Amino acid sequence: MTPRPRFTWPDERLIKAAQDGDVTSLTTVVVTSQPHVRKFALSLCASPQDAEDAAQEALIILYRKIGTLRATGALASWMFRIVRNECLRQVRLLVSRSDGAEPAEPEAGAEPSAEDAVLRRLEVERIAAAVSALPREQRQILIMRDVQGLPGKTVAHALGLSNAAMKSRLHRARAALRDSLAAADHALDRDIDQAVGGDVRP
User: Fold this and answer.
1) Are 127 and 94 a contacting pair, CB within 8 Å?
2) Pairing with 36, which of 72, 103, 177, 186 sits 20 to 30 Å away (CA)?
3) Short-list 187, 154, 188, 189, CA closest to 170
4) pLDDT tens-digit series, residues 98-142
5) Tens digits of per-residue pLDDT, 60-73?
6) What proportion of the chain, given as a percentage, has pLDDT over 90?
């Protein structure tokens, strides 16, 4: 049986040459990094299409901004952070759009306050971070069903699941998201308690 090829990151000399402006080296760095970047994206993003978009964006950033990489040995961690941030940004946009589809009825003539806008943005960030931290299968079905609003049968067909299996996985994903948000709230309360210490005694 033929072993599968092993991909390795570009070596530091090649990265240094790319940083110094050698176009051939830069092209080689981007091409050689591509399999790793795609693997990161597939493990972090909600769907293959999102992963493709995130990988492309990360490779563009690599091509344009490799000079900002401080340590040549840190390329892998740099790319991982870029892909993770891009996947998180995609989730954030989806959550924001989903929330915006059914806006709360404001009072007549009322404009949302700056405080309300900040709180809403923080809540979107919090939910997006919790969704992005879920296992890929749960993250994928939650975004397709609850954020993108796709019909259950469409989601089941896209994922190769029966309707019953899709509903079961969606239920687990929703429960995991609730638990994650509850744990984050609990941690925040604990941090607040520790911050005030004994200063709130009567």
Assistant:
1) no
2) 177
3) 154
4) 655 444 444 444 555 666 666 666 677 778 778 888 888 888 888
5) 999 999 988 888 78
6) 21
Structure tokens at 165: 């299996």
Cβ-contact 54, 90 below 8 angstroms: yes
> Contact at 8 Å (CB) between 119 and 174?
no
Q: Model pTM?
A: 0.56
Contacts of 171 (CB under 8 A, 6+ apart): none
Please state, in angstroms and rounded to a whole number, the distance separating the CA atoms of residues 82 and 36.
12
* 166 neighbors 73 (Cβ within 8 angstroms): no
**Closest by alpha carbon to 83, among 57, 64, 60?**
57
Using the structure block, give the residue that is written with the tokens 């993770």.
Answer: 84
Please compute, for residue 143, the number of CA atoms within 13 A of its CA located in the half-sphere on the CB side. Answer: 32
Mean of the per-residue pLDDT values of the chain? 78
How remote is the C-alpha of 187 from its chain's centroid? 22
- Average pLDDT over every residue of 26-41: 91
What does the block give as tokens for 72? 């040549």
